[in-house]
Amino acid sequence: MTNAQLTTNPTIGKYNTLRVIAIRDNGVYLDAGELGEILLPKRYVPENCQADSIVEVFIYADSADRLVATSDKPYGQVGEFVSLKVVQVNKMGAFLDWGLPKDLLVPYNQQHTKMEVGKYYLVRIFLDQVTDRLVASSKLDKFLDIWPADYKDGDKVNLIIGNKTDLGFKAIVNDLHWGLLYDNEIFQPLRIGKKIEGYIKQVREDGRLDLILTRGSKNTVSNFNEKLLAHLADNNGFSSLHDKSSPEVIKNTLGVSKKTFKATVGHLLKQGKIAIEKNGIRLL
């Protein structure tokens, strides 16, 4: 039991803090708001539980597709990327062990490559809006941001290790973007699904991210801050340069790469020294 605040909008596939409203021989019933009354089976009921007790539970559908609660902790919840092992494959798809009695389904149309029993795959857990069933997908690109990453060199980020490539390991950055760790800069064992902290080594001209697991030396962003501010001041506080400007135009105008320009703009924006307008940058 817990003293935590009640979950105002209980969600299938996530942890929820709910109130006990009835005690029965087969367990206790919980008030799950719009989801209705949900059973927490007797084997999961904490000691000294009574009416109005507050419990933290995970909500999912059992083998009969009935919503139930459990105090078991699955390996992941809705909205998370996690590496899971395939324990069965049948005509419906692949089933993953995620730490609950009912395995997690990856339908065939959600498999990036055909899954095999005994292998681990990095997947995203989500609630199918059509069937209201918890499922997973290894087609990860559709869950990541299509817009260029707004990072600067040296930023600390959270990584989830993805597949091995010829160059190194792909990694999901802050649950939003793909990045790449290079083999010659990896000095620890990595596995698919491992969660680890890292740093942005470089935001490339094409917007892709190069990553590193240890912080590198101080980058050139701070040295360019004053030059960009001076450029704005010399042009009545405005520059028509922006994130869509070509690398050539930026280099000819300011003498730096587009990567350094974008990183510096982001740095000054956070400091409140500039504002982004429709057609450029304005000095505040």
Structure commentary:
Residues 11-73, 77-139, 152-214 form the S1 motif domain. Belongs to the CvfB family. It comes from Colwellia asteriadis. It holds the Pfam family S1_2. This is S1-like domain-containing RNA-binding protein. The protein is mainly beta and 284 residues long. It has four domains: 15-70, Nucleic acid-binding proteins (OB fold (Dihydrolipoamide Acetyltransferase, E2P), Beta Barrel); 81-141, OB fold (Dihydrolipoamide Acetyltransferase, E2P) (Beta Barrel); 156-212, Nucleic acid-binding proteins (OB fold (Dihydrolipoamide Acetyltransferase, E2P), Beta Barrel); 221-283, Arc Repressor Mutant, subunit A (Orthogonal Bundle). 12% of the residues lie in helices and 38% in strands. The chain is built from three helices and 18 strands. The strands form four sheets. It has a five-stranded antiparallel sheet, with no helix packed on it. A five-stranded antiparallel sheet has the order 8-7-6-9-10, with no helix packed on it. The protein has a five-stranded mixed β-barrel with strand order 11-12-13-15-14. The mean pLDDT is 89.
